[in-house]
Amino acid sequence: QVQLQESGGGSVQSGGSLRLSCVASGYDYSGGSMAWFRQVAGKEREGVAAIDFDDYTSYDVSVKGRFTISLDRAKNTLYLQMNSLKPEDTAMYYCAADQRAHGIGLYEYNNWGQGTQVTVSS
Questions:
Q1: Which of 1, 11, 15, 80 is the most exposed place for a label (fewest CB within 10 A)?
Q2: pLDDT tens for residues 84-105?
């Protein structure tokens, strides 16, 4: 059974940085993707960034150049480095993983963490 636990959220001012972490257990890194999604209350969850088993990365256009996704397989930890944060980045951020997923398509992922809140003030 795959278990995912996020941490690292918080409150920052516009222009600031945060690094989110997601510790994974029970996940086989030989295939599929791991990803970060975010959700604002009342809106659909949206893909932010993904990293495939071969380290290919993909990003939503709204975060490209500001966010970086990375995976440390030795530590079983997925990261999201978020720089130049904007108020519109405010959301609950979720870690996801699936052996059959590729990229940031929401419905490709069946394993989810509980989320960590990011709040960016202007």
A1: 1
A2: 999 999 999 999 999 999 999 9
